[in-house]
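Thanks for the sequence, V.! I ran ABC transporter permease right away. Repeating your input here for the record:
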Amino acid sequence: MSWLTRFRNALRPEPLETELEDEFQEHLEQRAKRLETKGLSPEEARREAALRFGNSTLIRERSRDIRLWLGLETGLQDLRYGWRALRRNPVFAITAILSLSLAIGANTAIYSVVDAAILRKLPVPDPDSLIYLATPPIQQPGSETSDENTSFNYPVFNSFREAAGDSARLAGVGFPGRAEISDSAPGAPIEKVTRAYVSGEFFQVFGVTPALGRLFTAAEDKVPGGHPVMVLSYDFWQRRFHGDPGVINRTLLHDKTLYTIVGVAREGFFGNEPSRFVDIWVPTMMYQKEAFTNDRWQWMRITGRLGPGTTREQLAARFQPVLSQSNENRLKRMTTVPDVVRKQILEMKIFVQSGARGVSTFRRTFARPLWVVLCVAAAILLIACANVASLLLARASARAAEMAMRISLGAARLRLVRQLLTESLMLAGLAGVAGWLIARLAAPAVVAMLATPGDPYRFALEMDSRVLLFCALISALATLLFGMLPAWQASGTQPMQVLRGAASHGGRLRLGRLFVSVQVAFAFCLVMAGACFLFSLRNLRAVDAGFDPHQLALFSISNEVPAQEKAPKSNLMIQMRDRMAALSGVQAAAVAPWVVLEGSTWTDQIFLPGKSPSDREEIFYPVSSGYINTMRMRMLAGRDFTPREANNDPVVATVVNMAFVRRYFNSEDPEAALDKSFQRSSQPSMVTHRIVGVVSDSHYSSLRKAPVPIVYMPAEGSSYYTLHVRSNLDLPSLTRLVEREAAAVGSGTRLREVTTLDTLVGNTLLRERLLAVIGGTFALLGLVLAAIGLFGLLNYSVARRTREIGIRSALGAQRGEIVMLVGKDLAGMVGGGLLTGLVASLGLMTLVRSLLFGIRTVDPLVIGSATAVFSLVALMAGAFPAGRAAAVDPVVALRGE
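Predicted structure:
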């Protein structure tokens, strides 16, 4: 009989039963007829035929087993019985499914983000042959060690491209950034998009084909400014143009240039950085012209595809002489480079890294926190499994009679284990479906916590087969974790003891205590982790930034000066600042080319008269006069520079901070630096600075790092700058004032972006906020699950010991003594779990130390807070069972026995 027929019979056993009955009757009738021919009466013939046929029930069962898929049939029986069992006890089912679904959903959500950001390969042909180039970063003396550097200049990219030959095909990719586009019609609305400059080989290197039109080629990336063409991403084409095929050859205004749309990239391709979905690609030659000749402009990544038979090591050996020669030539023109930096540049190595998963700054920043969060989510799963196992053990006592009856009727122990595991699998399956739905909502929420309006992160978070398989695997793992031991314990029921009413619950109770202790240990680890992350965030927020970020609005301004107008950019910039400072409701205003905490920096070497050049480069920050006052930084000595003091004066008036004074004048007295002069390197000659003021230290790039020396100097005119406005007006009203003054200044002055310094400070805490929010949420969930486990087991223990408690009460035990009896059980379970969890937590803290701020490995405040919170929750969980035990009436208890 074919397996397909057996499979059909297992799914639909009724026709098989009918068929077997018909065959059985046919055999009996044939035998009876043969016996009738020998002289027997019909009744005697049928009786004799049945006797000679044998055990009809056994024959039916054997015939039935041959004609169907027995394992499938018993599995379906187990499923039907398990479903009825869950429906009979909905409170248990809902509690177990809710606990597991939250744990499975949390794990699946975090894994989907980890998969999209860290694990998944780029959706291109043969991603394993992709590469990208990197070098070790230049380390300033005393600075923190950083990751690899992936920024290169255009001249060295050209040299690498020539040196690669047939060994590899390279492409240059600018860092994806926010840009503005609009239709070519005057007054058309402006839209923010993510743009990337790419060389002509880019799409061919990645094997990308067009969904519409064509992709630009190497020939369109030869002449600076020569080919203003644009390729759209499929997602942006659908979002912005609703999939209109007529978009080809339309023009869009971008960066004061009309670009022609020549094509749309295929669906699913977003670029080579998984965390940033590019909307538009334009040729590198449309970037600023100086970027193609100035080897100090590190503005592009170099990616590529290995040729047949070429290894990454072989390619690195080809590129190393090219990099070394380029660095030597660059150092010849940079005569004032610190010796430490010069040595690093001369000894710099080139690394050819695998580009299968793309290049991602997000991955370098958030990979470790995301792995930590995934481990925390795994702890939640273990707690939920231990919780459900405890519930199953308590439920098993109510099913003891059922198990005893099954065993008495001949059921094998393994058969009972399979039945109970099937019920557990149903719980995990239903929880897995619910967890899948939770993950679909939670994963985008996790990404939203990391994104900012000016720096949005986007990921391909569709729940694909990889995420579905992960969800299924952890559901199956959960089944084994919470189902196996309770099933084995329940299947070992002794029928005679149950039938005599003397079943032993001691083993089940000990196993339940073990599960609860496991819950307590893992939950305490979560509470410790949550406390660490919350205190770390609190410590960072309490850091004195050195300036007042409140009520300080930041406006990104552009001065796109027409060629026929002669107004210098510096005049337009100062006019804008002066007009805003004079408005009612504005307390102070200043301008700077960029904003602190955004990552932009300009560094140069310091030369003090009569001393050796500094061994490092310091930050030079060009700002307008009034910046110190606008930021509310404390002037410790001297004065601010005036509007008449310019950057191009023979001697530049300069304000420095106290970190500068300590490092270069070895003094804690700000007066020690006043009127002192120093020089900085500037081609073709040195520039002299005179210190006119000293301000307090402030954080420049991160609140986590200690303040570093900063030199504040008068700002020159710029096409793009940030207007700092301190005002008690609300942001929309202030924005309207800025727009009005920008229109009054004219000459192409336009408001581009609006934010606040409070927002920027908050953006620097994204990683800490992610860990604090998710760690705190998981800690709360772990506490709830542990409390449920404690409550359930204590309640079961009180019910089991009702006769004992009744006897104690009858012999004179007071209510307080009964409560202490339950408290002793509670202390035994919680104490062991807390001790184990504390030891494990201290070990884990050493692994996440780099993610914490102001937290010691053994921090009394963290340990004390976590212990106090957990103890309070444990007492709350034990309060009801203790009250129930104290309220036991000895007469009722003994009469019930």
